[in-house]
């Protein structure tokens, strides 16, 4: 699989940026995680080189679940991926490992690629409990032998402008790869948290890192610059 850059728009939109993403980024995959309401219309005029992702999916399939979007509906509307387990889902919607396990199983059954997020908060990092937290987030959800992308997003780095040291990210990436191998899980390992044009080259140098999950910057033209630079780095 190619390295990937995923732009997570959250509860925002900027189709001007979407339309500026060039079609000649042959060394990487670019995906945009849209608010669900915009997925059908975006697919209709989307450039085929941009993959579409849901930002979340329901843990339920179709039925009497007001406000929910089943993973099968995302697939029917030509989404390729879905993000599951984002820290904002944990924080604001109190979702837990049981919810994420069900969502992942449903999404995989529907034929969606899954981007599962794990990450520690600042207190867990400072108290040196972060690796146990990440271990639990991984093994309580990720099943044996599945294909899934894992995004490491330290909560304290998201939107803060604070980026972990290279060796701190490398340590976690190496553990995720080791954990994945231990249960025969395949897929890419991504990083998210204050990714920018200025640090993309440094992050690219981290061994075994195969992409990025980008939030606020994905709504700005800098996102296009990041994609172009990452494409160039992967062509070297």
Automatic annotation (TrEMBL):
Its EC number is 5.3.1.1. It comes from Vairimorpha ceranae. CDD domains: TIM (cd00311). It holds the Pfam family TIM. The keyword Isomerase applies. It catalyses: D-glyceraldehyde 3-phosphate = dihydroxyacetone phosphate. Keywords: Gluconeogenesis, Glycolysis, Isomerase. InterPro entries: Aldolase_TIM, TIM_sf, Triosephosphate_isomerase, Triosephosphate_isomerase_AS. This is Triosephosphate isomerase. PROSITE patterns: TIM_1, TIM_2.
């Amino acid at each position: 699989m190619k390295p990937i850059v995923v732009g997570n728009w959250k509860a925002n939109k900027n189709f001007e940026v979407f339309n500026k993403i060039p079609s000649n980024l042959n060394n990487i995959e670019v995906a945009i995680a849209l608010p669900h309401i915009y997925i059908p219309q975006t697919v209709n005029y989307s450039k085929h080189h941009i993959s579409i992702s849901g930002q979340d999916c329901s843990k339920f399939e179709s039925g009497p679940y007001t406000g929910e979007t089943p993973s099968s509906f995302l697939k029917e509307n030509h989404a390729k991926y879905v993000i599951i387990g984002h820290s904002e889902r944990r924080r604001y919607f109190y979702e837990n490992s049981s919810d994420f396990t069900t969502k992942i199983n449903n999404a995989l059954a529907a034929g969606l690629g899954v981007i599962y997020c794990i990450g520690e908060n600042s207190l867990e990092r400072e108290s040196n409990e972060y690796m146990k937290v990440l271990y639990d987030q991984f093994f309580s959800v990720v099943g044996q032998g599945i294909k899934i992308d894992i995004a490491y997003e330290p909560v304290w780095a998201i939107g803060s402008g604070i980026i972990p040291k290279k060796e701190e990210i490398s340590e976690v990436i190496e553990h995720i790869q080791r954990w994945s191998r231990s249960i025969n899980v395949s897929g890419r390992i991504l990083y998210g948290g204050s990714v920018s044009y200025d640090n993309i080259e440094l992050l690219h140098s981290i061994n075994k890192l195969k992409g990025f999950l980008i939030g606020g910057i994905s709504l700005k033209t800098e996102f296009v610059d990041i994609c172009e630079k990452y494409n160039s780095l992967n062509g070297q």
